[in-house]
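Hi D.,

Good news: the full-assembly prediction came through. Inputs first.
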Amino acid sequence: MTSGTPQITLYNTLTRTKEPFRPIDANNVRMYVCGPTVYDFAHIGNARPVIVFDVLFRLLRQVYGADHVTYVRNITDVDDKINARALRDYPDLPLNEAIRKVTEKTEAQFLSDAERLGNLPPTWQPRATDNIAEMQVLIGNLIQRGHAYEANGEVLFSVQSMPDYGQLSGRNLEDNLAGARIAVDAHKRNPADFVLWKQSSVEEPGWDSPWGRGRPGWHIECSAMSERYLWDEIRDKLSPEAHRHPHAFDIHGGGLDLIFPHHENEIAQSRCAHGTHAMANIWMHNGFLQVEGQKMSKSLGNFYTISQLLDSEDFGGRKWPGEVLRLAMLMTHYREPIDFSVARLEEADRMLRKWARVYVQSSDECYLADWAVEALADDLNISELWARLHSLARQAEQDASIGRDVTATLNALGFKGLFLKLSGAPGTTDGEDSAIEALVTARLAALNAKDFAKADAIRNELAEQGIALMDYKDENGERQTKWEVKR
RNA sequence: GGCCUCGUGGCGGAGUGGUGACGCAGCGGAUUGCAAAUCCGCGUACUCCGGUUCAAUUCCGGACGAGGCCUCCA
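Then the structure:
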């Protein structure tokens, strides 16, 4: 690593402290984030980790080089909730076909949502069903090493076979038992043992395995997919140092709620299957969000999917551009809770409109300026980034050259799309705005002829279309007009 | 019951053991044909109670309040 590389600091759930980020192999930075289970449209809460870790991905790409970061986000397409949904929605189809319909449709919707929220596609987006063999290998290893056993048609992970089980969530087996809400299954050696493989009935989806025709448990999927894409597939490229820490990768992320049991169990599986000390070095978790001050739930009527916010007027009586949703999510540090509200979206909308005035439409440059990297390097301190951007945007209003960094940084943060439609000036936009431009030009002519009545009439006409005009004088003292979409 | 977070001005939101980040909204002024935009100015906030300290919003303890996990969940 060169001395010029900024030092990134990240909060590690494993140690509950901020730590300097030191990739195992700086030429191959590896990150895994738990993706969606594709049984239903993603809601706005699901969008948070997608956006948060996209920002981290973009930061890492900038610091270590775009070709030196591997980001995996899985698609869970085998799950009992999916089966239930398939039965409900396609009762007349054979189950496997119905499942495929559900998962394909939901996955396509998720990918579209993610893109419209300004996220880059991860390096890999593996599906669980394409990695069944990898899961079986892991399960076989676990059995062989004495960490898993068959009972009652299931393969179970034995938590007491792992002395330091519970490290991530900071809980021990005794504490868990004290809660006494864990279902007592007679076939489990310990109530906290969890399923790695379970048998499927004839009509349920299943794969042949040494333990009978069945399907994987939830946790094993992520262990298998991270292993495949962050170790197996790139091990030949990894440094000698990385080979001294086989199977381990740099960052594992997800929502706060996944700490236990999901991530805890992933760690147990991956470490015990390979006999290693770490699955990932840094574990990151984003905070939860509420909607209008309450936990989002269908019964409270404050449950919103991403596509609903984008395309319907269900929330606040209007549609919200993806970039507005994105900024609303990024107004707060990723570990803090967010109250997702109409007021918050309106504020995000106003912030973007302000920046649109200094945004250089013609620029395709896309990089995080030094001041942005510096802010994000401190555990993704995005508030600090906005503070700096605000200050520079104010200067850019007077000095256009500063707008270049601001523009490139906004592009690099995934906000480009909105700015292209938000505002313009004659000659700077493409064909679809020509009607606006014609009126603006006509109004300028009226103004120069001191026909203020006509000029105001044109301005009112445009205002009714949601276009606001702003007059200013150019460097020659000539009157010019800019316009922006008020919505 | 156990384990975690968190509590900053009207709102959003960083940060810090000692001069009130930053933004949104609001108010006053400059500018403008009128506007808008812009510029200048305006706010003495850190839940409460103890403790440590010369000094605490910042550290420690407690109370109260909010949220999460312990069961599918971002």
